[in-house]
Target: OTOP1 protein
Amino acid sequence: MEKAAGSPSVGGSYPQKNAEILSSQYGINLFLAGLLLTFAWAVHAVGISKSHLLSYLITLMLIQLLWMLWYLCRSCTQRRLIRDKDRHAGARWLKCGITLFAVITLILDSFKIGYYIDFSNCLSPTEGIFPVTHAVHTILQVYFLWCHAKDIIQSFKTLERFGVIHSVFTNLLLWTNGVLTESKHQLNEHKERLITLGFGNITIVLDDHAPQCNCTTTTLCSIFSQGIYYLYPFNIEYHILASTMLYVLWKNIGRKVEHHQQHKTPFKFHGITVGMIFGLIVLTSTIAIVVVYLIQIGRSKIKSELALTMFYLHAIFVLALMCTAGIVALLIYRLEDRSLDNSKNPARKLDAELLVGTAAGSWLLSWGSILAIICAQAHPKYTWYNLPYSVLVIIEKYIQNLFIIESIHREQEKVNDDIKTLRIVTISRGSTLSLTPSYKEIYNGRAACDSGEVPCLFKGSIGGRENGDGGATEETSQENSSVMHSASDFSFYNRNSVANNKRRILKNIAAFLFLCNLSLWIPPAFGCRPEYDNGLEEIVFGFEPWIIVVNLAMPFSIFYRMHSAASLFEVNCKT
Model:
């Protein structure tokens, strides 16, 4: 009988598992086809133009738009139904972050439209259709994620799997296209800078995709063309965040969740002043370093070397502080005895996998720099600063990953929110006696005596009246109870103060690391990339091989910093 009862469950889960496999394979093939098309355009393959690539991306976005409209319409017709929600997915701060990136992406699309209008004589119509389609896609997708990122889909599951996975890989292809376009622009600038550093033996051939006609308004064309590349980092982050949120939605399709009370973890500035101050100092100094770096690099050999030295020294100092903060946080965790939450959570699992996976991009670049320093025959003075910098990058990510992953897996302190104050009122000799144990006593189980029936003071008062000795016995009982409460309060406050100090230190560390990761996201995102400008790696590995490595690893390194900042924000709210 038990086997017969269990067989429907097995039979029912098999088609869904099959649909999951089929949809994932569909998405991967969709992505690989687009990836090869992107690569073919990048290397100027015969018969492949930018219009072919844009036509493919436009088609994918239109299909996703149709699916999202269908899902939204179906949700409106079923809005009275109670639906399961994943409380860990689609946090409000994550939605606010993706909205900010989406707004800047819309500005980027408007720049592209203006750029197309100025060069309309020699550009394909797809270059004008693409930003319009992309803008509509961005607006509807952000609305969709705000309303349905937490959904656990239980109907039309097979169809929804294909729709969601299509959306995931569409965003990944748009991310790939943005990364490639931005990388080609950075590579052109990098080739021009290498001459000023004395690497004249490297062949400088610019990879130019500029329109072959004159602009109608030169000033506007310059603004559009330069502004586009400064806005690409935000567009890149937008698409990778959207793809991760949609992936969690895909993993949640058909999932069974336990219904329990949701604990909200709002962000509070209280108690993190020290971490915020130090973090803002790092952020301000990093912005100043990036500005000076971009001004000085490429102007002359001396100025370029000074810019690289300045960058390395600043980065070494910041990374050393981050390593120290991470070690202190891990030591505090070792002193605490709190269990880990190992329940099934697709969002948390994805966060941990992304941290380790994207950190590999920085580790690859760091090990490449270390090997170049060891193997190079000649070492300009500024290249020696690259050695401690590369070593610290490896160590810092290792420590920070341990801290973040353990933090998001630690169980929160369970506090009974329904009981804030216990007030017991009894009539004693015609007067009202209000006895209110503190919330701290209630939380630690000290509000009840050994019998667990009445508070200690109340019991003492009753005992005094039963003795019949009048005020003397009652006062003695109350004094003994008062002494007992004083001792327990002293022990409680002693432990509580230590726990609060640990918690305050952890929140300050999380706030400091949050701002530091935002700071370290800025340099590579806006063109401050010593891996390009150092020159030593190109001599050891060869120009083309090293540029390929950098172009593959750098996007993951940039995403790591933004994802770490988002995870640390969650850690700060949770601590």
Q: What stands out?
A: The longest strand covers residues 424-428. Confidence is low (pLDDT under 50) at residues 1-12, 415-469. The CA atoms of residues 213 and 487 lie 86 Å apart. The two ends are 48 Å apart (CA to CA).
